[in-house]
Amino acid sequence: MSKSILDTIGNTPLIASQVLNTNPNVKLLFKMEGHNPGGSVKDRAAYNMINAGLEKGTITKDSKLIEATSGNTGIALALIAGIYGLNIELVMPENSTKERVQTMRAYGAKVTLTPSDVGIEGARDYAEAKVKNEGYIMLNQFSNEDNWKAHYKTTGPEIWNDTEGEITHFVSSMGTTGTIMGTSTYLKEQNENIQIVGVQPTDGSSIPGIRKWPEAYLPKIFDADKVDQVIEISTEEAREMARKLAKEEGIFAGMSSGGATMAALKLAATLDKGTIVSIICDRGDRYLSSDLFD
């Protein structure tokens, strides 16, 4: 029996594609991160960053926390900060979906919306100014080593164990890059031949949760040597695949999961054999007020 909601973070199911993967010599497995209590893969990093900060003393019960987020990390931080009795302000572009904003507020966080025309970069600038001028503390998922270490400790080992070491390729969308960095580090230690495939948007495409960062905003935790291949996906490909996942596989997820699935299917089509694990990073219900499923 779980002792608290925090004990339900991780150990998410690994589900085989039944329809979309048409290569009979390749297994395509979906890592279902929407089963985390906060509904996304970001629960892992948020829990590890807050827990490690409290253990190290870099944050305390009196700290004023602030974080810029495109959504999933903010929900996870709001959930976990609330359990620990911490005050947190989450900063998001004003075009974020209503469900995300309401969920963060339900967990007790203060939510500040910044102009949509400056995107997540503008939210990051706002948060950094509050740290510099008003004594706030930023967990900073973009440079916090405890972000990727969450996946080194949990996501990587789960995938290795659940595939009984058969995994040949790991596919993940790249945002803060914590998931792909930590999972890559662990899997490469088990078998250096496992191929790590990152997913980025094509030039001009906008996919929530997947970014091709300008150099000045590139996450400090990112190490290009830990990614063997990058597959670029368009907005329309990600949208179409999110809809197909729901309709054909019964997997209700967002655009970044659609993007990762599209990349995994493109990869599968090129392989003679293999076992691909692709991250389904969240649930589709936090996109219902958008036009994703219209």
Automatic annotation (TrEMBL):
Residues with the N6-(pyridoxal phosphate)lysine modification: K42
Record-level GO BP terms: cysteine biosynthetic process from serine
Pathway as given in its UniProt record: Amino-acid biosynthesis; L-cysteine biosynthesis; L-cysteine from L-serine: step 2/2
GO molecular function: cysteine synthase activity
Catalytic activity: O-acetyl-L-serine + hydrogen sulfide = L-cysteine + acetate
Entry EC number(s): 2.5.1.47
Record keyword Chaperone present: no
Amino-acid biosynthesis found in the keyword field: yes
Boundaries of every Tryptophan synthase beta chain-like PALP domain copy: 6-282
Annotated InterPro entries: Cys_synth, Cys_Synth/Cystath_Beta-Synth, CysM, P-phosphate_BS, TrpB-like_PALP, TrpB-like_PALP_sf
Listed cofactors: pyridoxal 5'-phosphate
Annotated residues for binding of pyridoxal 5'-phosphate: N72, G175, T176, T177, G178, T179, S256
EC top class, as a word: transferase
Keywords on record: Amino-acid biosynthesis, Cysteine biosynthesis, Pyridoxal phosphate, Transferase
Pfam family, one: PALP
Family assignment from sequence similarity: Belongs to the cysteine synthase/cystathionine beta-synthase family.
Annotated NCBIfam families: cysKM, cysM, PRK11761.1
The protein's name in its UniProt record: Cysteine synthase
Species name: Maribacter polysiphoniae
Gene (name only): cysM
